[in-house]
Amino acid sequence: MQLMPAENPYAAPRSDTAFPGIAGAGGDLKDDEIFAFVGESAGYYRQAWASANRTGGFYAGFNVAALIFSTLWLLYRKMYLRSVVLLVMQMAAMFAGAFFATVMGVNPMLGLWPMLLLTKVAIGFLGNGLYLRRARRAIHAARQTNGEINLPFLATKGGTSGGAVVVGIVANVLLNLLLR
Fold first, then answer.
1. pLDDT tens, 61-95?
2. Domain ranges of the chain
3. CA angle 104–71–165, rounded 5-degree value
4. How high is the mean pLDDT of the chain?
5. What DSSP assignment string belongs to the chain?
């Protein structure tokens, strides 16, 4: 007879590590909540978040769009503060890389691009987990409004923002012009 993981008397106790202090915030997202929050790409995120949703964990796989577009992807997914933090981290990493390349007597571009690539790879690995964390918080808040899930409210908190991407592109162009 094979025991299921939940029936294993030797298994470690389960705990919600995703949001300490918020009861029920990890591992309990329902399909209708995911579809309401994410919108058009809900199928992808439902699949990407499946394991982390079951366990209440953070890591939810690699996101190629987050790797390629990084700050713009964060803006598109309405993670505005995280996009600003990532932009500052990318700029700091690039300046540090260029500085060390200059100190070592090589072309500063040799230090600049690896640091930018490093931050992009990091957001590729962390992107789905960051978005899952945002979804958990929004879904938890939507559940608290009246005891039942308010899907229209959840849809306004989630979804995407093409306007934020446009603002991000314009800001990026202006920033590049100012730094010349």
1. 899 999 999 889 999 999 999 988 888 887 787 77
2. 28-178
3. 140
4. 78
5. -PPPGGG-TTSPPP---SSTT-TT-SS---HHHHHHHH-TTHHHHHHHTHHHHHHT-S-----HHHHHHTHHHHHHTT-HHHHHHHHHHHHHHHHHHHHHHHHTTS-THHHHHHHHHHHHHHHHHHHHHHHHHHHHHHHHHHHHTTSS--HHHHHHHSS--HHHHHHHHHHHHHHHHHT-
pLDDT > 80? residue 23: no
- Over residues 25-52, mean pLDDT: 82
pLDDT of residue 176: 73
